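TEACHING EXERCISE
Course module: macromolecular assemblies
Task: Read the component lines below, then compare them to the predicted structure of the full complex.
Student: A.B.
Group: 4
Components provided:
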Amino acid sequence: MNDSPAIETIGLTKKFGDFTAVDDVSLHIERGEIVGFLGPNGAGKSTTIKSILDLIRPTSGRCEVLGMDSRRDAVEIRRHLGFLPADLALYPNLTGHQTIEFLGNLRGGVDWTWVGSLAERFDADLSKKVAEYSSGNRQKIGLIQAFMHRPTVVILDEPIAGLDPLVQLEFHSLMRKYVQQGNTIFLSSHTISEVERVADRVAFIRRGHLIAVERMSELQDKALRRITLEFAQPVPPSIFDEVEGVHEVTATGATITAQYEGTMTPLLQVATAHDVVSISSASVDLDQIFLEFYRDEVEAVEAVEAANEPDREEAVRDEAGSGEVT
Amino acid sequence: MLHSLYLKTVRDRWLSASVGVASLFLVAWMGLWAYAGMGDEALKFIATMPPAYKSLTGTTADAGVAGLMLGQMFNFLGPFVIAGIGISMGAGAIAGEESRRTMSVLSSVPRSRSGLLASKGLAIATIVTLSSAVASLSYLLGVAIVGEDIRSLDLVAGTAHLTAVALFYATVAFAIGAATGLKGLASGVATGYLVLSFLAVGFLPLFSGWESVAKFFPWYVLNGSQPLVDGIVWAQIAILLSLTAVLAFGAWWGINRRDLREGESRAPVVIRLKSNPRFAVISARLSGAGSARSIVAKTLSDVRAVTIIAGGGLFLLLVVMGPMFTAMADSLGNIVDAMPQALLAMVGFADYSSPTGWYHGEALSVTAPVAISVVTIAAGMALAREEANRTIAILLSAPISRYAVAWRKAAVLALLATLMGVVVFGGIAVGNLIAGLGMDYSHIATAGLLSIGLGCVLGAVAFLAGALSGKTSIAMGSATGVAILGWGINSFVAVNPDLEGYARLSPFYYYANNFPLENGLIWWHLVVLIGAAAVLVSGGVWGYARRDLRG
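Instructor-supplied answer key:
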């Protein structure tokens, strides 16, 4: 096998009628890393994954896995690829073991000792019919089949849905060990803490556009941090209005809290013009970064809430006036 | 909420019901057109019809060709289609919500299960009644288009009887679905009962002393009392509606006394039955352990139950028809002797006094095609079912191409069509052997071969539609539509020699028009059927490999 990237999309665009689900997405995933894929619902995550898997065809652009074209070399790619779809559906009339056996027979070269160890690791009971499994147990079957042939590249779409915390821990441990062997995992998830815990890099997609691909460590370094400044006397928050990289400034008495990105120097220059009593700073977690990337969406939600607020207040007043409780 | 649920259920079903009614109209119109085109020739035949036949079809000589055609619509095709719509709705009403996992949302609103059941029940009654009424009105349109006169026929009575019968069978499915939560069981039992009733009412009167037993089957209400001729028989309607009410009560009792399910998990009743060793063996062999060996084996195991029931049932029927013919030869001779051969040929029936005609008319004309199409359409839908069930993503994560998946599914279709052809050959051959009927085995083999061809074509229509759309509803609707229209074209249009060219558009023409048991094989008929199936399947594979997959 050559040394080409594990997954690469080049100008990937997918339209459904007039709607552009994915627009000119170019993503480059190297071997031996876990890349998280984050975005709100409808951002284009599943469309991108389906294009890589050749379940749907790009309107323009292309996808490559291990240097092979996703459409022309679809069958060869699947020899080296493991996949867990979101909202997993399996054959209800097969047992867990039969499901693994069926998919194993189709692909060949399955190491059944490895399958046994995966089942043991996830505490999966393979004897029941799929129809009788809970969603978590069905997800375990999905995880086993995704890893059963020791694929070079694994694409996981919402892998921990339905799994209990213990199995989640075991699964995260498996992922870390698996990429240490030179394999690659592309992890689409809504669970930001999961991505934060295991991913080496994170790709953010919004409204079909890839807006950022960052190394997790660099993202945390350069991304927003929260600072709390305690002054001897209250100071107006507006003193930070013009300071580059400073957001979300709020004042409570003599304490100012703000978020900042990049270097702290400009902020400190403005702050130390006043009598600063104490300073504390902390990293912002990925949740905050995510919200920062999707600021427009967050602001839209907040605008709707603000618009509804007078109505709600009015309703509360009316209720209080009528004395009725509904 | 109940009003909303009622409206949603009606909205969900109106389109498929409309397609069914439109199919009925097309068949009726084609038949009326063909008969009317024959002019006095057809009327002369009808005037010479024996009372037995007119009684069976519920028509009169006064009603002319329109009466003959409408007899077919009210006593045969119409009840099957409209009761089929009702059964589909009834089975899916409660059990369908459970299997789609929507029941938990429905039951979280502050409304009782009884209210939920009532909304669904009313929606079923609405669709069945409207379908029946609109179909009858469409027949009037067909009659007007061809300029016939039906003043002597009581269409209101025919519609009332048909509606009552369809409501009854729909409620059978409704009650079983509500009481068990098993959609497959509900539709299977209700459909089986419908077909059994049809066969019983058709066959039992032919046996001396068994005539009155036919009255215990609801189908008897359709043509036993000849509502088209004699008007509404209120007693029969009242009895049937009372039984329907009892079944509706059973549905209410059942749903209020069991745990509701979510998703595909087994119902408690099945778990209890499976704990019984005898039932467990039967159940495992029927629906059974799915095969994990390959896509072909897995797909075969998916349709095992329907294949065993339809194929086994057809085989048994074909076998017992041999001795049955021997036992009834005398009475059949009396009935058929009174009927002009030309008329029998015209309405698609062969000479019942001969074993070949008996098998052709009673098995190969309707029952065998229904059994064959049930199996092969189910097989043809298998490709689309992977998308509908969203298992295609996991299947295509294996290193196998879309072409390979599609061709393997097509191979299953061919295998099952062949199996049904073998069933047709085997059943008739065994019946022939044990009753010593003396039919030519090469001609029986021809019927088997043409059955394979018919099964391949109907299954291939489902395959093509499913492969291009990824929707099982479109696959089933297309294949069922082609089956009904094809049967209608061949049965009714072909009777007019001037219109016989149109009949060649129907696969049924190549399957049955040459009376294979009597006349053997016209080789190119088989070539047309297999060739058409090959073209349809190839088109399906081609389209499947080029489109975005669903799910």
